Amino acid sequence: MKTREYTFFGGIHPRSYKELSNKYPIEEHLPKSQVIIPLQQHIGAPCTPLVKVNDYVKVGQKIGEANGFVSAPVHSSVSGKVVAIEDRPSSSGKLVKSIVIESDGEFNYDDNIKPNEDIDNLKPEEIRQIVRDAGIVGMGGAMFPTAVKLNPPPDKKIDIVILNGAECEPYLTADHRLMLEKPVDIVHGLLAIMKALGASKGYVGIEDNKQDAIKEIRKACKEYAGVEVAVLKTKYPQGSEKHIIKAITGREIPSGKLPADIGVVVDNVGTAFAIAEAIKFGKPLIERVVTVTGEGIMTPKNLRVKIGTPFRELIECCGGFKGIPGKVISGGPMMGIAQYSIDVPVIKGTSGILVLPEDRIALKDPKPCIKCARCVDACPMNLLPLFISAYSLKNDFNKCEEYHALDCIECGSCSYVCPSKRPLVESIRLAKREILRKRKK
Prior knowledge:
Part of a membrane-bound complex that couples electron transfer with translocation of ions across the membrane. This protein is α/β, with parallel strands linked by helices and 441 residues long. The chain has 13 helices and 17 strands.
């Protein structure tokens, strides 16, 4: 009997380019000298530094205290001396106050890093506290503090947890490799999330172009009731939170609402793995898997790296640039952020470093919209991108709001299919920013 494949309306099918790196097992990379650890690697309030220049710190030591409910602490990923606390460029494109640590190469762990009880012996509130103390955030790129997701309002009953293993962005393969190499830990993390929320059903959503990962995760799920793999049709943006929920559960998040409002919580498979490590070893979020890939890289790889490692080091670890780089992107080509420096550090949400050669980024001048409606067909949110963009370019943001610009997830599907190469995503993003600015007034 054919396995059911879950999907959603709209979306696109860009070439994946995953063959560049998906066969390479995860390699560990240790930073050569300095790490740069931003005090804000999450949505919400930035951290307050707990150390000062010349302090000696150890691996896993908390060096930034979370301020506020929506926040997450940061920890040292190396042992060594704090040499600076100052504003540094971040992959977000902003200057962020950061703690710069000169590694001593010893990687001595903090004495407070100790294993916790097994999940069966932990209470839901204890799991939530472990996750918060470990500074775990959404590792698919959103970087929303996971402890907040695990602590919904009392009137929001969560009955379903979904682990997002779609990894629908072209080029990226970090989650794929993690599912192949650490399936038991990923399912362990899923069970912890379910217990923290009191959920009875858990899914791991994986696209059907990752049959080997589907096999491994199914094997890891086998002994647990209420946990299963949901095979997703390969389509972008299948990994969008709203669309993976719609595809698997049939539930739709109303405009302006959150997954918790319909009884669902979604976390990335990397987040589940980090939770498992926090419970089993007491290990805070100090490292992650990053795909370094693209036609502009000599040897694409999947690397397990310490938070704070500069992009430059990882590019060098992969043999350096192949030819002249045209663009370096943090993340994937659809929703990633182009970088103006390769000295920015890996942060908790860095899923990939993509290098495209010069001949891949030739820009074409936009032409007038021909009203072909391809953007409408592709939009997974059922929006009218051509009209939102047109009103945005005329600075008519009230009209943009009427066309539900805030519901745009900025997936880039509209820009990808536009034959006139209109700046659809950029102009809609501007409209969203202006609408939110007006609301704050």
